[in-house]
Design brief:
The protein is an alpha/beta fold. The chain has a domain of 170 residues: P-loop containing nucleotide triphosphate hydrolases (Rossmann fold). Helices cover 46% and strands 10% of the residues. The chain has a 5-stranded parallel sheet with strand order 3-4-2-6-7, sandwiched between helices. Helix 2 packs across helix 5. The relative contact order is 0.17. The N terminus and C terminus are likely disordered.
Length: 299
């Protein structure tokens, strides 16, 4: 029998649904780092079990989870529109989304913005885990799925039902690319996000690796441990590790373009031309009614 996503996440990461400071069952600790250590050893298909937190073991457990459904089965509520931007770091997607939001507002649309890994329920836990370097590929995947689940419930679906335009800076495709590069089963991570609504349009900002690296490294003199992919043991030098990590994510994104029909944007073009193409692409999908700006606007 397939385990529903909500039950699966509650079993694997019960404290995440109650807030980052809540204790894991059987413990009195309110330390998020301690909870993370427990999380890394609690995954099983149907029951909570204690297993080794060694990565190969976690990958085996991960691959044994029975999928609840494949991603793509749930359309978003027809009243609203959901537009998504994806791409590797340095692709310029966030800049384009910000400009798009400003334009939509000027046109009178209700706009709600949501960003990847922005839910408050996992923020403290994620921060502590990164500081102490406790996060494994599987804990990363589960924490991001928990974050996404919370934002779907609190932000995305309510806004869509209200007829708003939701702009997402990264969506499930980020997990499909990053988690797989970190060694998580592609089919498992797709089933993990089976509850996610399919966007109206998803854009992939394609940029050569060297261009993206130049943009990022010129503005970030020091890369963070997980940002550089140092947890994967790709290279002893952070910048070289980052280069390898991003190159692998780039490969996965190209696969997603074919699998999910992402709309490819040339991220090497001038900002103005990219924005013009983005607006023209979404224009046919924009609602003709309900354009008044409501108090729920977030951008």
């Amino acid at each position: 029998m397939a385990v529903p996503l909500s039950t699966h996440l509650a079993a694997c990461c019960p404290y995440a649904h109650r807030g980052a400071s809540a204790a894991v069952p059987g413990r009195r600790s309110r330390d998020p780092a301690a909870n993370l250590q427990a999380l890394g050893v609690m995954l099983r298909p149907r029951i909570v079990d204690r297993v080794s937190a060694v990565d190969p073991v976690l990958r085996v457990c991960c691959s044994r989870v029975t999928p609840t459904r494949d991603y793509g089965a749930i359309p978003h509520p027809a009243a609203g529109r959901l537009f998504v931007v994806e791409g590797i770091d340095g692709s310029g997607k966030s800049t384009q989304l910000t400009l798009l939001a400003q334009w939509l507002k000027s046109e009178g649309h209700t706009v709600v913005f949501t960003g990847w890994n922005s839910s408050p329920i996992v923020k403290a836990t994620t921060r502590r885990g990164k500081q102490r370097r406790l996060l494994t590929p599987l804990t990363f995947s589960l924490i991001h799925a928990t974050d996404f689940s919370d934002r779907i419930e609190r932000e995305i679906i309510p806004a869509l039902k209200a007829g708003a335009i939701v702009l997402a800076d990264r969506y499930v495709y980020t997990a499909f690319a990053r988690d797989v590069v970190r060694g998580v089963s592609p089919s498992w991570v797709r089933s993990l996000y089976g509850f996610a609504a399919v966007p109206t349009q998803a854009f992939y900002f394609r940029v050569p690796l060297e261009v993206a690296l130049r943009r990022i490294l010129s503005s970030r003199p020091k890369l963070k441990w997980y940002e550089a992919g140092m947890d994967l043991g790709l290279h002893a030098v952070p910048k070289e590790s980052y280069r390898i990590f991003q190159s692998r994510i780039l490969i996965e994104y190209e696969k997603l373009v074919q699998e999910f029909g992402l709309v490819v944007m040339d991220a090497t073009r001038p900002v103005e031309l990219q924005q013009r193409a983005l607006r023209e692409s979404i224009r046919p999908h924009l609602p003709l009614v309900g354009r008044e700006v409501l108090t729920c606007e977030r951008v």
